[in-house]
Structure formats: structure tokens, C-alpha cells
Design goal:
By secondary structure, the protein is mainly α. The protein has one domain. It is 78% helix and 0% strand. Helix 3 runs antiparallel to helix 4. The longest helix is centred in the middle third of the chain and has 27 residues. The mean pLDDT is 88.
Length: 138
């Protein structure tokens, strides 16, 4: 049962990543402005992130690649939040629209939720993971 549910979630979760990744190639200009200036070469980062979103979106749809892909996708979501944070801190519009503070907060919550789904798909034990992270900090 868990395998079937994982397949449904993996497929449902993968399709939007593939479509958004594809959109990075079709409309790259709307993503370029989100790249923090300290990173330089916004088009390069837009295209690279689009490639990763497509590849990892496909990966979480394939059962034998799901665990590894979900771990990488969780990391990618964390890295991509730098663009969302840049958008929030510098009040950068996305596709001509600016988000309110509440809109940015909702976006952050969604990002955390997406990372948690990736953890579930990667079969990461949350308690063990966070205890290990906290232990390394001490």
C-alpha cells in the first residue's frame, strides 16, 4: 500500500517540477530577475535550475530512483529558496506581480512543506535526521 501511495505522490509531485523546469527554458527572463546578484550570470542559474527540476522531477516519478532523487530535490528546494528569499528581501516582482509579506510567508510555508514531502519520499526518518543535525551542531 505504501509503495502505491508513494507512486501516486511521486508522480503527482514530479509533474509540476517537470513543467516548471520546462518553463525555465520557455520564459527564462521571469526567473533571471530572482537570481541573487552575488551569484552572477542569472541566465546560467535559471537554465541549470530548470535542468535539475526536470531531471529530479522525472527521478521522483521512477520508483528505483525516487529515494535518491527526493534527497537531491529536498536539497535543491533549499538552495532555490535563496531566489525566493532574494525576491522577498528586495521586493522583486515575479512575472510582473509583487507578493505581499503574507504572500512571501505562505510561499515559505509551501517550500517547507515541499521539502517535508521530499523527506517522506526519500524515506528519511525526521526524528533521527534532526537529532543528527543537532548533534553535529553541539
Amino acid at each position: 500500500m505504501k509503495q502505491k501511495f508513494g507512486n501516486v505522490i511521486g508522480f503527482s509531485f514530479g509533474i509540476p517540477f517537470i513543467l516548471i523546469g520546462y518553463d525555465h527554458f520557455i520564459c527564462p527572463a521571469i526567473y533571471d530577475s530572482l537570481v541573487p546578484t552575488y551569484m552572477g550570470y542569472p541566465r546560467f542559474w535559471t537554465i541549470l535550475s530548470g535542468i535539475f527540476e526536470i531531471v529530479l522531477g522525472m527521478g521522483i516519478m521512477i520508483p528505483f530512483a525516487r529515494i535518491y532523487s527526493a534527497k537531491l530535490l529536498a536539497f535543491l528546494l533549499f538552495i532555490l529558496y535563496l531566489a525566493n528569499l532574494n525576491m522577498w528581501l528586495n521586493d522583486i516582482p515575479f512575472n510582473g506581480a509583487k507578493l505581499s509579506q503574507i504572500g512571501h510567508l505562505i510561499r515559505l510555508i509551501i517550500q517547507v512543506f515541499l521539502v517535508l514531502i521530499c523527506f517522506w519520499l526519500a524515506e528519511i526518518n525526521f526524528k533521527k535526521f534532526f537529532l543528527k543535525v543537532m548533534k553535529k551542531r553541539a
